[in-house]
């Protein structure tokens, strides 16, 4: 006979209800990431082939775009925490993103005789603002769903991170093929359709999330506040699109945002209690490590994609690989390895041997170093300046598992160390830090910028592999620093729980 609790709720029903709620969050994140990564995989090659940019401007345009995508979640987290509620802001963000991808998919120059560059940058602005509304809030809902069960938190966020990469894998496999056979606009339209599916399933399963949300979710909708948010979306979309178009302006915005992020953490540390301060210090240290990680991560859509375009043999088993499609290896390996790591964390946790978050970060940087050294030595088997695509397969494996140990657990880091009342804003601050680092990653990618007069693959191969080896040594240094910080971070972790 099924035993009931004092409140009359059957424990099995609570578990099933929680699983259905997690599924709704998993699915909307998956479809949102389907749209985002389907767009991301194309954007640098799109800027070169469609907009006519050189490699350096294409890298920096994507870096500015990525920075804006990750700067706006600070505002989105605040709107979710204080204005509309995390659930409502998630839905609104998904809708705005779908509109942004639809705008990017529209052939403005063909249909309306409008300047395509202007509308492309406006589309990017809408996407960045939609991402800002969306990104911090589903993460916050997952944290609230499991805040009473810390033993499941790392595993839940690891599986949730897999949703990101399932969506990324599907779109990054699909959109380059559509781009090759049907054109850029159809590829971007697929991204918009992904958001339609995501929002629709979230609305259909919303009943399972009725008890999960931030304070405004449990109050009637205030129409005045909704109208104010919608008006802000329009204004910000135009402003952000303008920033992305003008790279010098983007550079200043990134600098100011970096200063603002540092001041934000300083103010929090000064105002926090001793227990809160320990957790925040730990989070600051791990966030700095995450910033370094995303400099490596940004190479996938910049230097590694251009390396594939210029120096990788693109024929594999008779299939001609679009150069951007190598990025699909990242979500593939993550989708394969996420359940393995989730099982491993659970198994070690039951034995009291689960490594600390700081230890996992150290392992992540070590794997990252191996991946970049593989790219860096790929020239040993080159043929007329071209290397086997298997070097990319191996490098992406180590880079992707390293990502799981760093970025995948970064989401859980906020839930672990930050009070629920600040969690939405801190999710936004953590995402802002990743945006700053992705802009820096584009700057780093331009150290391998191929001069316009260099057409010889042997020369370009040497330029790319030199950068990858240097990044491998940086990752080794990060590993040693992470190892040295483990005892200190363990003490901070213990103090934050006192």
Structure characteristics:
498 residues, mainly alpha, Growth Hormone, Chain: A, two-stranded antiparallel sheet, 17 helices, 78% helix, disordered N terminus, PTR2_symporter_CS, membrane, Dipep/tripep_permease, protein transport
Instruction: Just name the CATH architecture.
Output: Up-down Bundle
User: pLDDT under 50 segments (min length 5)?
Assistant: 1-10
Query: Strand content of the residues, in percent?
Result: under 5%
| CATH H-level homologous superfamily name | MFS general substrate transporter like domains
Strand and helix map with partners:
Blueprint: H1 11-49, H2 55-71, H3 73-83, H4 86-105, H5 108-111, H6 116-145, H7 153-182, H8 184-204, H9 223-245, H10 247-271, H11 274-297, H12 303-311, E1 315-316, E2 319-320, H13 329-350, H14 357-376, H15 390-417, H16 423-445, H17 457-496
Antiparallel strand pairs: 1-2
Helix pairs in contact: 1-2, 1-4, 1-6, 1-7, 1-8, 2-6, 2-9, 2-10, 2-16, 3-4, 3-6, 3-16, 4-6, 4-8, 6-9, 6-16, 7-8, 7-13, 7-15, 10-11, 10-16, 11-14, 11-15, 11-16, 11-17, 12-17, 13-15, 14-15, 14-17, 15-16
Structure description:
With 498 residues, the protein is mostly helical. It has a single domain (11-496), classed as Up-down Bundle (Growth Hormone, Chain: A), CATH 1.20.1250. It has helices spanning 11-49, 55-71, 73-83, 86-105, 108-111, 116-145, 153-182, 184-204, 223-245, 247-271, 274-297, 303-311, 329-350, 357-376, 390-417, 423-445, 457-496, and strands at residues 315-316, 319-320. Strands 1-2 form a two-stranded antiparallel ribbon. The two termini are 40 Å apart. Mean pLDDT is 84; it is low at 1-10. The chain crosses the membrane at residues 34-53, 59-79, 91-108, 114-134, 155-178, 184-204, 225-244, 250-270, 279-297, 332-349, 361-377, 397-418, 430-451, 471-489. It is a multi-pass membrane protein.
């Amino acid at each position: 006979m099924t035993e009931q609790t004092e409140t009359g709720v059957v424990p099995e029903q609570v578990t099933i209800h929680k699983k259905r709620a997690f599924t709704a969050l998993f699915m909307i994140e998956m479809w949102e990431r389907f749209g985002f990564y389907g767009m991301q995989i194309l954007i640098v090659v799109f800027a070169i082939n469609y907009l006519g940019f050189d490699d350096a401007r294409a890298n920096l345009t994507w870096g500015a775009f990525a920075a804006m995508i990750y700067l706006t979640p600070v505002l989105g987290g605040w709107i979710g925490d204080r204005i509309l509620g995390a659930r409502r802001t998630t839905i609104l963000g998904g809708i705005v993103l779908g509109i942004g991808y639809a705008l990017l998919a529209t052939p403005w120059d063909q249909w309306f005789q409008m300047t395509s560059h202007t509308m492309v940058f406006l589309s990017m602005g809408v996407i960045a603002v939609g991402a800002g509304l969306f990104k911090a809030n589903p993460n916050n809902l997952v944290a609230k769903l499991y805040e009473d069960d810390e033993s499941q938190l790392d595993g839940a966020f690891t599986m949730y991170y897999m949703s990101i990469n399932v969506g990324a894998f599907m779109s990054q496999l699909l959109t380059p093929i559509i781009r090759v056979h049907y054109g850029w606009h159809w590829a971007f339209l697929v991204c918009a359709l992904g958001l339609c599916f995501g929002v629709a399933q979230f609305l259909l399963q919303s009943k399972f999330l009725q008890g999960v949300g931030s304070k405004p979710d449990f109050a009637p909708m205030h129409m005045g506040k909704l109208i104010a948010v919608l008006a802000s979306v329009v204004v910000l979309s135009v402003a952000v699109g303008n920033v992305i178009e003008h790279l010098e302006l983007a550079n200043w915005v990134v600098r100011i945002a970096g200063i603002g992020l540092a001041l934000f953490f300083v103010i929090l540390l000064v105002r926090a209690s001793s227990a809160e301060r320990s957790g925040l210090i730990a989070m600051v240290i791990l966030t700095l490590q995450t910033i370094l990680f995303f400099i490596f991560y940004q190479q996938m859509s910049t230097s590694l994609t251009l390396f594939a375009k210029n120096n990788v043999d693109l024929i594999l088993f008779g299939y001609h690989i679009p150069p951007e499609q190598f990025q699909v290896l990242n979500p593939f390996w993550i989708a394969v390895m996420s359940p393995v790591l989730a099982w491993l964390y659970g198994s070690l946790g039951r034995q009291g041997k689960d490594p600390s978050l700081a230890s996992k970060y150290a392992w992540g940087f070590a794997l990252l170093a191996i991946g970049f050294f593989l790219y860096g030595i790929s020239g040993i088997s080159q043929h007329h300046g071209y290397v086997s695509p298997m070097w990319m397969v191996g490098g992406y494996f180590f880079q992707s598992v390293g990502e799981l140990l760093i970025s995948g657990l970064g989401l859980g880091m906020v839930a672990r160390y930050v009070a629920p009342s600040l969690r939405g804003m801190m999710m936004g601050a953590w995402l802002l830090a990743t945006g700053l680092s992705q802009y820096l990653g584009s700057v780093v990618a331009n150290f391998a910028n191929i001069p316009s007069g260099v057409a010889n693959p042997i020369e370009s191969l040497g330029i790319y592999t030199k950068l990858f080896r240097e990044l491998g040594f940086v990752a080794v240094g990060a590993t040693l620093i992470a190892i040295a910080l483990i005892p200190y971070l363990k003490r901070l972790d213990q103090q934050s729980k006192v």
